[in-house]
């Protein structure tokens, strides 16, 4: 394996989300969030895309977020394991409903604020920098039920209040922030990304892009507040990234691939460049979409641009204009993609493309000329515990080795990357399927898809591999 030289102070670590790890879903004064209404099984996808018939959990359903892996009570044990691996950073999210249980409360919930105080103190005690996402797929349910979630302009104010509250509280503990996790997911899983619920006959596209505008304004306000309250902090955006390849060199395929990439770049273009791009304005016109903007919004977007680009990368995508080729669209990922014959796939049908990681990093850096932060990357797979109590996840090591090497190549290409927090350093609930058997971690959690298990933690083979990667600052990937 080629030896790579990563920058001094490179932030190696892992990433989790509150709604997939904490559990304790109504403990400490926390309110219901959107993910608390997402069961496992056949109904999950309909809810994720905006068909929600109840704003309360149903007795007959199993909701994996309610207990998750109980990080809320076990975080000290888990952070000690992350520290043993040598983590320099841990990306987490704050649950909005732990701080403001209803979202529109007059005063924050002190028990929720204290929980994250204690969590950040524990990280800092071990020399681990918190990297905090303000909104990671969990809108307070009250805001959905009363206001229609992000379709309503009032959420901009509620979000700004929430952001300012946590900036003031944690200004001495958190120096890396992100506004919205995978903000482009609003177009693919609108309930997950923005708490959107649709009624029959509504213009979904209009609602989605109006909600997007509200999130973009809220992001700009959060950036402004962060810079004022914590001048030495960095605040970024976050994209679910992955290069879209044209299936052939037919110019029609090439143009369609560009359009597919622009669906996602639209959000980051606004957050990074500070204005709506021309192609988006044409798209709104061609699709008879009218975005309601208030006076001052354009100035807010212009002055509220992010400091860095956070992104997740799991694989590339491919598209075609050929109806026969389009029949080969895979079903494994949220992003519909024509199957790429040059790539292997994961057990869940996701394309594995380490070279695409390098291409995507270059693409983002060329486009924005701002530092990048790889805040998600990993392999979901079924892990088996041997009779000797070992978990030999060589397939995960192979995936990560190739992707870290590709990141090293991107850095040599001149791409500025702040750090790498691989997804799910400990097994957590899958965001897309709600499963536990789809594992990403270096640390195994004894729990199954039905919620059974001791929740005990166990080190996998990849635990020791990643420990050596961090100790060598990426120099030893063997």
UniProtKB/TrEMBL annotation:
The active site is at residue 376. It comes from the Bacteria. Coiled coil: none annotated. GO terms for cellular component: cytosol. GO terms for biological process: carbohydrate catabolic process. One of its GO terms (molecular function) is beta-glucosidase activity. Keywords: Glycosidase, Hydrolase. Transmembrane segments: none annotated. Pfam families: Glyco_hydro_1. Belongs to the glycosyl hydrolase 1 family. This is 6-phospho-beta-glucosidase. The lineage of its organism: Bacteria, Bacillati, Bacillota, Bacilli, Bacillales.
């Amino acid at each position: 394996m080629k030896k790579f030289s990563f920058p001094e102070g490179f932030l190696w670590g892992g990433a989790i989300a509150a709604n997939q790890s904490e559990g304790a879903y109504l403990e400490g004064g926390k309110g219901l969030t959107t993910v608390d209404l997402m069961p496992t099984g056949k109904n999950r996808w309909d809810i994720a895309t905006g068909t929600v018939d109840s704003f309360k959990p149903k007795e007959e359903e199993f909701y994996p977020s309610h207990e998750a892996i109980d990080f809320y009570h076990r975080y000290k044990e888990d952070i000690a394991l992350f520290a043993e691996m040598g983590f320099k950073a841990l990306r987490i999210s704050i649950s909005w409903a732990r701080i403001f249980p209803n979202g529109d409360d007059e005063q924050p919930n002190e028990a929720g604020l204290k929980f994250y105080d204690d969590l950040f103190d524990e990280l800092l005690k071990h020399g681990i920098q918190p990297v905090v996402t303000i909104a990671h797929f969990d809108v307070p349910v009250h805001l959905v039920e009363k206001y229609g979630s992000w379709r309503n302009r009032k959420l901009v104010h509620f979000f700004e209040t929430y952001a300012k509250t946590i900036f003031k509280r944690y200004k001495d503990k958190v120096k890396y922030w992100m506004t919205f996790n995978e903000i482009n997911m609003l177009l693919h899983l609108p309930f997950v990304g923005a708490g959107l619920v649709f009624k029959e006959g509504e213009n979904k596209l209009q609602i989605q892009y109006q909600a997007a505008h509200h999130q973009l304004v809220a992001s700009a306000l959060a950036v402004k507040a962060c810079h004022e309250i914590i001048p030495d902090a960095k605040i970024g955006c976050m994209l679910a990234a992955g290069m879209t390849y044209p299936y052939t060199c037919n110019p029609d395929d090439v143009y369609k691939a560009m359009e597919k990439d622009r669906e996602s770049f639209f959000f980051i273009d606004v957050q990074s460049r500070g204005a709506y791009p021309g192609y988006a304005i044409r798209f709104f016109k061609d699709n008879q979409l009218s975005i309601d903007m208030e006076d001052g919004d354009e100035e807010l977007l212009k002055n509220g641009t992010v400091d860095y680009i956070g992104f997740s990368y799991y694989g590339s995508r491919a598209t075609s204009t050929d109806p026969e080729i389009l029949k080969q669209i895979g079903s494994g990922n949220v992003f519909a993609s024509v199957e790429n014959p040059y790539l292997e796939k994961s057990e869940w049908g996701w394309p594995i493309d380490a070279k695409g990681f390098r291409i995507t990093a270059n693409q983002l850096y060329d486009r924005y000329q701002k530092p990048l932060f790889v805040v998600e990357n990993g392999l979901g797979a079924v892990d088996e515990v041997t009779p000797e109590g070992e978990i030999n996840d060589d397939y995960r090591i192979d995936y990560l080795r190739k992707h870290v090497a590709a990141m090293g190549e991107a850095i040599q290409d001149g791409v500025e990357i702040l750090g790498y927090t691989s997804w799910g350093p400990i097994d957590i609930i899958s965001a897309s399927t709600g499963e536990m058997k789809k594992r990403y971690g270096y640390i195994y959690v004894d729990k199954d898809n039905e919620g059974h298990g001791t929740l005990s933690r166990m080190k996998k083979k990849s635990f020791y591999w990643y420990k050596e990667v961090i100790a060598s600052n990426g120099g030893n990937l063997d």
